[in-house]
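A note from the maintainers: we've had questions about how concatenated examples are separated. There is no special marker in the raw files; a new sequence line simply starts the next protein. For clarity in this README we add a label.
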Amino acid sequence: MKLRLWASALACVCGLALPSAHAQTTQSLDYIVALVNSEPITYQELEREIKRVAQQIEQQGQTKPPAAELRRLVLERMINDRAQLQLARESGIRIDTPAIDQAEREVATQNQVDVAGLHQRLAKDGVSVATFRDGLRDQLALNRLHERSVESTIRVSDVDVERAMQARLDSNADPLSFDINLAQILIAVPEKATAEQAAALFVQAKGVLTRIRAGEDFERLVKEVSAADRANGGHMGVRRADRYPELFVEATQTLNVGEVSEIVRSGAGFHILKVIEKRAPARLVRTVVQSRARHILLRSSPQQSQAQAIAKLADARQRIVSGKVDFASAAKGLSQDTSAERGGDLGWANPGMFVPEFEEVMNALKENEISQPLVSRFGVHLIQLMERRRVELSPQEVRESVRSELRRSRYEEAYRNWAQDVRGRAFVEMREPPQ
């Protein structure tokens, strides 16, 4: 399983363990509600899981199903998990202590505490460390079982990729991927124009648009009134739409060739746009937003606790923001990362290149903004977003992105069929409450 999916799974484990304030609650009443291949699911286990799921639904702001339906769904999921865990053991899957230790550190990092802090939160919520680690062991075993039994069975051929790419191309409605040629008439508005001057120029632009709608020749009016380039009838040239100003694309995306837009206001003035050409792309085009960031990384150690690293980076951030030191110099002096010699510069990165907890914070930053100290599985970071840009994927990258999409879509169906098969082969006996 890829790192992102694995981290997501661990987050689910954390959600399972941390909110379970009732996990160690004792009740005088307990009995078996179901047997899965002779392994029991007890009333107390079911009630704890129902409470956890109900709490999670409320936290996410979703509508909770009726109690009987929620109970049925939770019990069915527990039966499926129990049957799959039995299959994992039968298949020889074993999770060693170092793997559980690593998973525990992952969960602590995702909750921005160290392992000791995580144990304190577990104790506060009434969950023993042993119970929590058993949950991690089960989740890791299920992950490995799914990798072995489901992911390894998914095949995506080159023919599948070609067909999918052609289908996406045939159904493409993304206006930014079309090749277009626009012509414009610009009624310029001076930078320091008053509101009255701007209003008068808007009236002038409306008059020009009225003349066009009445049948006057667009190119003749370009030569007569446009403040933009008048060569070639105001044509701006064939290019992919995402290389035109976004305002121009929005104003013309529903127009046919030969049609004229309403008046578009930009910083330069009032534009009237005419669609000269519009062509669907001959190949599948995809773009991604790349980010260029730099960071300072401090690692936790016996000599430097996580709390001390956070405090040190908070102080560094204050000094950078106040102008006492620049980010690059601070990174060279503080960062415990190979990027330190480059002033912390991480270069241009595609989405998904960094671990989720780092990328989530980076994506929320504006250009030149500096984050608060954040904890990742690698240590404590201070991030500055330097710039963003949109780039076109190479043909090979497009193919691989389509292949990945196909694998993800096929995984859901493959997993559902496999899980149903495991459930169908399990002996499940439902028990009634004792009288």
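[label: protein 2]
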Amino acid sequence: MARLLGVDRRRYYAWRRRRANGPTPRQQRMDGLVEAVKAFHAASDGTYGAPRLVWDLREAGWDVSVKTVAKAMRLAGVEGISPRTYHPPTTVPGPGPFPVEDLVARRFDQGAKDAVWFSDITYLPTGEGWAYLCTVRDGHTRRVLGRQVEPHMKASLVVATLRQAAALRGELPGTVIFHADRGAQFTSAELAEVSRAVGVLRSVGRTGVCWDNAQQESFWSTLKTEFYNRHVFATVSQARRACYVWIDSWYNARRRHSKIGYMSPLQYEQSLVEQAEGN
């Protein structure tokens, strides 16, 4: 058979010895890594790719690189989730009775907590029709400070979310820039009054230019791709509860963010506190 197949007999016997001896230490390590990858990938609700799984594995004691984890993911038959490209518009420009400038100029992370907050509204399909989610996020720590879901897009939705963020932070160390798009809700007299009351300075991007609020758009992509579009919600109430749980218990508390050292927003804010106490 060796002559017929053109195979070196020594290679055949070497292969047979390897089979008898069982997997090598290297193969055993890879088998263990594959199982660990499966576990951490499942813990992320099937969303993490190799760059984030690396940090979970390293915390668990594995000395691995991104390429090694990517290989283990292929062997495990798992992969991260990639965002979709379609984003329906929700911005309806308002008359702008109070002129508001762009104070951010795409400098989304200005290097300090509570320097810039970002806000926007996105649509959520439900069995009862559209619901709308408004959030306020810290541009530096990426933490969601306020979140509200309602079946309407009125200015009161933004007002309630901003008040929630201000209440969470308490007394602010200085003036916070509150940046959004130029939708009617964000240029309303109602929001202008509440912004003065809570001590934030409004800022808006240009009409129809999503890149002026790109950090918030990135958050919507994460929420829709990794969570909302993978489920079906019969009612607005169900969608509301599910979004709050995902934001509070996963995104803020556990999801690793590449821009803050692959820590979660809450972990990163705690590290800032520890650094300040150490100084």
